[in-house]
Amino acid sequence: MGDMDPHIFAVAEEAYKQMARDERNQSIIVSGESGAGKTVSAKYAMRYFATVSCSSSEANVEEKVLASSPIMEALGNAKTTRNDNSSRFGKYIEIGFDKKLSITGANMRTYLLEKSRVVFQAYGERNYHIFYQLCASSHLPEFKDFKLGCADDFNYTNQGQSPAIDGVDDAQEMCNTRKAFSLLGISDSDQMAIYQILAAILHLSNVEVKEQSADKSSIMPDNAHLMVFCDLMGVPREEMAHWLCHRTLKTTTETFVKPVPKMSAINGRDALAKHIYARLFSRIVASINTALKSTMKQRSFIGVLDIYGFETFDLNSFEQFCINYANEKLQQQFNLHVFKLEQEEYMKEEIPWTLIDFYDNQPCINLIEAKLGVLDLLDEECRMPKGSDDTWTQKLYNTLLKQNAHFDKPRLSNTAFIIHHFADKVEYQCGGFLEKNKDTVNAEQINVMKKSKFDLLVKLFEDDETTASSSNKRSGVGGRTGQSQKDTKKTVGLQFRQSLHLLMDTLNATTPHYVRCIKPNDHKAAFSLDPVRAVQQLRACGILETVRISAAGFPSRWTYQEFFSRYRVLMKQKDVLRDRKQTCRNLLEKLIQDQDQYQFGKNKIFFRAGQVAYLEKLRSDKLRMACVRIQKTIRCWLARKKYLRMRESAVTIQRYVRGHQARCYAKFLRRTRAAIVIQRMVRMWVARRRYQRQRSAAITIQCHFRTYMARKQYYKMMYEQKAVVLQKWARGWLAREHFRRTLAAVVLLQSCVRRIRAKKDLKKLKVEARSVEHFKKLNVGMENKIMQLQHKINEQHRENRELSEKLNSVEKTQALEKERQRKEIENLHKSDQEAKSKAEKLPSLLEQLTFLQHELEKTRKEKDDLEEKSKVYTEQTQQVVEELNMKNSLLTREKDELNKHILEQAQQLSEIKTNAEIAKQTEKDLAEERSRYQSLLSEHLHLEERHRDLREEMDLNINPDKSNQNRKDSIYSTSSEFSQSCGSTEGDDSSIPTEDETQLTVDLPVLLKLQRRVTELEQDKQSLWQQLDKKEEVQQEKAKELEKQRTAGRAELDLETLKRQELESENKKLKQDLNELRKSLTNEDNEAAPPPPGSLPYNTLLEQLSSSNEELEMRKEEVLLLRSHMVRQEALKHKDSALGEGINLDLDISSFQEADRSTDIHTLNEDGELWLAYEGLKETNRLLELQMQEQNRVHGEKNRKLLQEVNKMKAEKEQQQHLLAQSLLLPEEARIEACLKLEITRLTTENLDLLENQEKQEKIIRKLKKQLKLHMKRVEDFEGAQQNNPSVMDTRVRTVHITRKEREYQGMLEYKEGEEGRLLKNVVTDLKPRGVAVSFIPGLPAYIIFMCLRYADNRNNDQRVSNLLNSTISSIKGVIKRRADDFEVVSFWLANTCRLMHCIKQYSGDEVIMKQNTAKQNEHCLANFELSEYQQVFGDLAIQIYRQLIKCTEELLQPLIVASMLEHDTIHSVLGSKPTGLRKKSSGSSDEGAVTMDVLLQRLGLFHNTMSQHGMDAELIKQVVRQQFYIICAVTLNNLLLRKDMCSWSKGLQIRYSIWQLEEWLAERELVDCGAKETLEPLVQAAQLLQIKKKDEKDAKDICEMCTALTTAQIVKVLTLYTPVIEFEERVPTSFIAIIRNLLRDRVESPTLMMDAKKIFSISLPYTPSSVALETIQIPASLNLGFLKRI
């Protein structure tokens, strides 16, 4: 763009590039005369920046920057004689950029708004655009309150008499202005406030001032425009009218209010309008800056200066002076940058250069801003008290006229002066200079404005007040405290000069770019150029000199280091020298042949125009070629690597294919030879078998013929005698059979009807349970509970009163007891005195005295103990009373809590319902997502299988004979296995002995039930066998431990009894010796006199007595301890039984001694043996009572059972009597048939009971046999242990020692590298599931593979891990593909795949999973690899196997479903009657080969047992069962909808009976909660639809409410196909079907008629951790895995 003709976008692009390249701030200075196009050029420059750089923030800052232009043009531009859109202010916009060169924000500065245009316009000019836009939009409803009209109606807009601009629609411009306001974030309320102030200014212009006298004026308060102005501004009308015509004069002591003449009042009004507009303009600029401000960091900026151009009118005033002064400063900056600095730098760098002369306008600038210049004299005159424009003009003439050549005086005027500017000389009129420079406003008017109720107006003048206060502070600091605010206020000229200096500093700090706008003509004519006028502007702007210096100069320059860093890529390594200057010289001489295009300076290299662009092109070409070379090399390397990899793969594939072909050929030869041998043997076997059949057939024919002849002869002989007897019994038997069938049919019908009623009642109860009434009933129960609690509280109060009464009675008894003890103590004192008197007489009685003293001390101690007991008892009673009070308070709290709970239940109901709905929705969404994923997975797997099949077909094309032979073998094997499984089930069914064939034909349903029951029980035996063994082993271990404890306890009891007997014998001896000693001491009648006290024999006797007493006390304590221990041991014997529940084992001797007993101490012996005996008797009595209670309980249970049997017999008797009474009313044949049916039902029930008892006895026998074997084994172990080591303790120690020496395994299997194929061949490919499932633990192959995987992980070999897992996946897929029709194989590998996936997750090391493991399992976690991806792969493989399992199940169940659910009439054979329409299809007795419901249930049971034996997860089994039941439902319902002969009332009964059998099957296997029952709901509703009444509209509504799982098409189809087969049935009328259609027309459902029998529910694989410890798993020898080694 820089090579094209001059354009504003080229300048903007150059500034943008230099900012990006040099990282320096840039400026674009747009200058020119008024009307030359400066504003438009600045606008296009900003538009360029907004286009090339996007905003880095969320909001579009570039749009906001562009949106500021319409606002500033509306508020700051106006029509002049030279320009229809002239900028009457200057602005400088800084556009900020970040590191990515994106716009971050902007900032705007304005200069010298032309406020005088608000109140005055010359002829042919207009006021600011916003006023005309506002008047043009006055018809809008939001502007109605402003009371505006045409622009000609207001004084401020009609002075120029040119209210319109050609080609400009002010109303449309108003819309653009409002949109710009909104884009900048200014709210509608703030916009309306701005428009309100502008409207008020217009109304202020029409306020009329009337002259009362020469120096007095007034405004009428009822002036309409004044009223509107005051209303819009929110100021009082009277004050505003007063201060517009008055002003204040302040003296040192007083303040005077003085009226002003009319002209002064008008000038004051205009000054107020100008001040308000200026403040509003500043406020809007501040708002725009706030909107454009950004919080992001600014790296650099580009400034765009759009300032007023040079102006010269017929009447030039203060505004034109300031505008031309600003243009002089800009011209000086241009000269400084283009001429002075450029040439100075050339001289500094010593480049040969010829100086160019240019016009320097510094003298003109000095004339204006220097000391004693025009502005300085103007400010000085403004500070004078009586300064005027005339005096200021005279000062100018006197000071500047002869001293400055740029200043001149007009010839015919003394109130003007001329300044020779760079563009032209301008004559300025001095009138109004001082007033405009002062910019004064009446302070009282400002005060009135500050009292406004209008918020925006108050904010405008608050800003004014803050600026005034800040200027006061600055003046106070300067020491001029005596001056007033008027003196300290800055003049307009001073402010403008300072802002210009600040602008120059900003421009000098940036790299400037100049845009010179040339005005083509002065007539505002399009496409018209005045050459003289254009050349004049070019000369005045210095463009000619600029062209000369640009042609001869060097616009681009680099330092040597910068040039080297930038263009280093253009050099070779040998060209780089240590001297950077010389290196740069060599490079430039090599690249640029013309040496005149550049110059070398001291520090920089200078380039002429276009040379830097040429170097940049060379640099970009060099970089591009380097990129191409790098890409070429890398692509070559990648292509060669790919080729080598493909070549290696091709060689490997060829090697394996050739080896495979050779093996296949050898195998084909072996099979051909084997086929010949097999053919020979088969032909021989066929011929031999044919001969044997012919021989046996001949023998059989002879036998039957001979028996026929003998039987014929026998019948002929017995015919005459036995025919009558046989006829009699046969007819009787037939009559009884007919009666039994009829009775069974009636009972079955009654049961069906009762079941239907019961279901209806159950539904009603469920609805009531969900209703509010149910919760009311519950609340009634809660109220009853509250009443019961209240009753308990009352009882507690009553018990408290009784306890308090007992406490009083106890205190009374204790007082009596104390009185009695006091009397006894007195008696003891008396006896003590008597003893003392006897001691004086008889010194031999000293021992008795000491004994009595000892007894006295004991009684005193007992007294103290009793007193303490009484205190303790009183405290305990008080505690009991307090506890009861606390319980009472707790009960009251519970009552309140129950009331709260009742209220909370009602609130929780709604929450539970909403949560349930949310949960259902989430489950539904989850199921849909899961089904989508699994369908995609199935499609992917199907494509993989298709790919493999195509590969196999390619292989088969090579050797077709081999594939045919393999396919035949696989088909033969699968069919033979399937036939074996079917044969085994049939064998089980046929194993039941049948004695009477006639009974089978008569009672076939009962017999089928018995057969099904027997087969299911036999299947349950196998599934429960392992569980019983485990439980018995656990019980046996517990029994061992208990037996050891009992033997040890018995041995200790025996030792303790022996010790007790020895101590008791010694105690008796000591008692005898003590009695003998006492007798010898106290016997006065003894012949030998007692020894005197103090003698040697007396002392020896006393010592012996004391020692014997001490020994006696010790023996007493030991006996007591032994007795208490024995009581505990006896209690421990009965602790585990029901008799030991009430025994208290905490026997304390102190409690025996301290209990309440009689105070007669002499009634008890000395050592307290009687008390201990009494306590022992109490314990034995307690034991006997417990035994008696147990016996009573046993007798009660027996009596209860006998009563139940008696009641049962009574009920049977009553039932038989009732049936007998009914049968007597029937005819003879029906009576006989009913009796036969009753007898058959009785016999079947007895048979079932006997079978159950037999099974129980067999279980008991098996259990006893196991226990007997276990006990015999224990006896043998015990005898062997006694022979080896007689001590039991040594055996224990030795066994513990042996277990400690056992080797600990780490749960890993070591295998060599490359043995994966051998391992998987034995574990996966050649493994037979049936042998593994029966003999070993479930999931053994999965555990073996995972243990090998742990070994590979432990070795940290990722190759072995990936090989093992990939080989496992491919092997399992191969087995599933080969044996896809074998349910057992597919189920086995589904269980093992899930177990392997769960093992990978269980031992992954996840913290959440490790919390569920044992410590040993956590030690076995994988240490080096994270296999979550393989876990997902195994999950996908499990889903694939699951789908194959469902397909296999569907193929096996498909031929059984219709025959068992629809075609087989079990219910009709039970009823004994058949519908007339079906008699031809059903025979009197069911064929042996017919498919019945029992066959279907047996097949389902076989599936379930197979999955259970393989260790499949319970949740996965439930999902399989649910899918099986869905298949049954879909196939049955589809056939029902397609066959007219199946839609009848009896067939509905048959279907419901079959569904009941399926539900019973689910209940027996505890699968009710698997969701299978819900899948049968469409079939259940179809059966109900066949049986329900179908006549009136009420029936139709019932059908619509009932059949929610059926579609409208299905309901209509069933009703249309309904065919009556019994007399009381009728066809469904078409009117009834039409009612059904009308009722169901609003139902949203699928239009399809058939159910999708191929639908497969989405599968979920819940995580189930394994409890099997890896270190305990042993590898069976039958798997041929000897090459694996346990570590």
Strand order of the largest sheet: 5-4-10-1-14
Structural class: mainly alpha
Distance between the termini: 80 Å
Count of DSSP E strands?
19
Q: Biggest sheet, in brief?
A: 5 strands, mixed
Number of helical segments with 4 or more residues: 50
Give the C-level CATH assignment of the domain at 1442-1639.
Answer: Mainly Alpha
Quote the CATH topology of the domain at 1442-1639: Methane Monooxygenase Hydroxylase, Chain G, domain 1
**What are the low-pLDDT stretches, counting only 5+ consecutive residues below 50?**
468-488, 960-1006, 1084-1090, 1133-1169, 1286-1302, 1468-1487
- Backbone shape: elongated
Question: Percentage of helical residues?
Answer: 55-70%
Radius of gyration: 61 Å
Mean pLDDT: 77
Describe the structure.
The chain has 1687 residues and is mainly α. Among the domains are: 556-607, Alpha-Beta Plaits (2-Layer Sandwich); 611-770, no CATH class; 785-916; 1046-1084 and 1096-1200, no CATH class; 1311-1436 and 1667-1686, no CATH class; 1442-1639, Methane Monooxygenase Hydroxylase, Chain G, domain 1. Helix content is 68%, strand content 5%. It starts with 7 loop residues before the first helix and ends with a strand.
